[in-house]
Amino acid sequence: MAAKTQGQLIKEARTAAGMTQEQLAKKVKGLSASDISKAERSEIALTNEQVKAIAKATGVTQKSLLEAPVPKKATSGGKTSASGKTSSSGKTSSSGKTSSSSNTMKVSAEEKKLIQAYRAADADSKKAALALLKKGKNEEIGGILGSLINNPDIKDALSGLQSLF
Prior knowledge:
Layout: H1 6-16, H2 21-27, H3 33-40, H4 48-58, H5 62-66, E1 97-99, E2 104-106, H6 109-120, H7 123-134, H8 138-150, H9 154-162
Antiparallel strand pairs: 1-2
Helix pairs in contact: 1-3, 1-4, 2-3, 7-9, 8-9
């Protein structure tokens, strides 16, 4: 029988503790219920700090979760970590640092807001935002980014900005 993956062990620990994914996410800074679900399915890899926080919240040993195998397919798509660091996929954390296997980059508060807004956007809005950024129109981009940060309805902001182009 194959060893259980980290995701399977996280799910077992959570359910044994009688917690929903949402309840666990509330106890682990920087993770949503969706992130917990993806981690349990081995779709994303969590940071050691996040895994330690899950172990603490569910009452299992950190070692049991940290030493469990993480499948290669469990790459992160930019999940926020409680530690402030990100995996090789470029995750951004609450401390504003983004890291990869080869470097570490500090992210400003404004950049963090952009990243969060981008992650919250639907696919069409993400495409539109990337298209606008690639055009290289610095003044217009500054206004667009400001709108993204301050406008709770990102899609409407992008739609209005698209009319400029």
